[in-house]
Amino acid sequence: MSIKTIIIEDEKPAARKLERMLANYSDLELVATLNSVEEAVAWFNENEHPQLIFSDIVLGDGLSFDIFEKVATKAFIIYTTAFDQYTLKAFKLNSIDYLLKPIMEEDLTKAVEKFKSFLPEDGFVNSQEIKQILKKDKSTLSRILVKIGYNLKIVQTNEISCFFSENKIVYLQTSERSFPTDFTLDELENVLDEKDFFRVNRQYIIHSKFIKNIHTSPTYKVELDYQPDEEITVSRDRVKDFKDWLSS
């Protein structure tokens, strides 16, 4: 069976490289390479939808998520990007895999085989099946893209001492300073490595690597190497889980 496939990528070298890699799969038929949100929306409105989409996330005229919020599709999406902070949102929009650039042949092969293993007889992935797959195949966040004025900075999660909420904005804290993020703490709980990070209360998620001291009386308080000025207290209902996490 020929699997109709498209690429959405605004960087021509990256698009050409992916085209060459996909040419090695005889059952994938590349029907279009699209370069922008606007072009992709127009293409989807005028053409039969493919079964498989390889899509970069950050495009010149917006995020590729914008495409699939405007166009309903049953196609399976494999996102390709240099940044993994969009993992959670990607998995809410018909994606069951996520490839970080530069794309490795081994990772691409695994993604294509994964797609084929869940491909029903009609050639489309059911959204409910996607949700079940994701429960079994949870990705963890390893780096975050933050904005500093008109510049972007990559922060590795192993450099983050904590995440904290202040005035409805979630910040990450490093030895350098704090940076605002686009996440909520609830979202971060789902994508951070639970071996390293623990949510001690409604306002803070902390990293075990940066714990300097723990006070246990009268309440549990945590001191980190780098943190905002206020104290970090472990909620009473989280103390047992906190101690279990420390000893695991």
Strand content: 25-35%
Task: Report how far apart the termini are.
Answer: 48 Å
**Unreliable residue runs:** 125-137
The general outline is elongated
Query: What is the average of the pLDDT values?
Result: 85
Q: What is the rounded Rg?
A: 21 Å
Biggest sheet: strands side by side, in what order? 2-1-3-6-7
Largest sheet: 5 strands, parallel
Give the H and E element order.
EHEHEEEHEHEHHEEEEEHEEEEEH
Q: Which structural class best describes the helix and strand composition?
A: alpha/beta
How many helices does DSSP assign?
Answer: 8
Please bin the fraction of helical residues.
25-40%
How many distinct beta strands?
17
Note down, in words, how this protein is organized.
- The chain is α/β, with parallel strands linked by helices and 248 residues long.
- Helices cover 29% and strands 31% of the residues.
- It is built from 8 helices and 17 strands.
- It has helices spanning 12-22, 37-46, 65-70, 87-92, 105-117, 127-136, 185-191, 239-247; strands spanning 3-8, 28-34, 52-56, 58-59, 62-63, 76-81, 95-100, 143-148, 151-156, 162-166, 169-173, 178-180, 197-199, 204-207, 211-215, 221-224, 232-233.
- The strands form 5 sheets. It has a 5-stranded parallel beta sheet. Strands 12-11-10-14-13 form a 5-stranded antiparallel beta sheet, with no helix packed on it. The chain has a 3-stranded antiparallel beta sheet with strand order 15-16-17, with no helix packed on it.
- Strand 8 (143-148) and strand 9 form a beta hairpin.
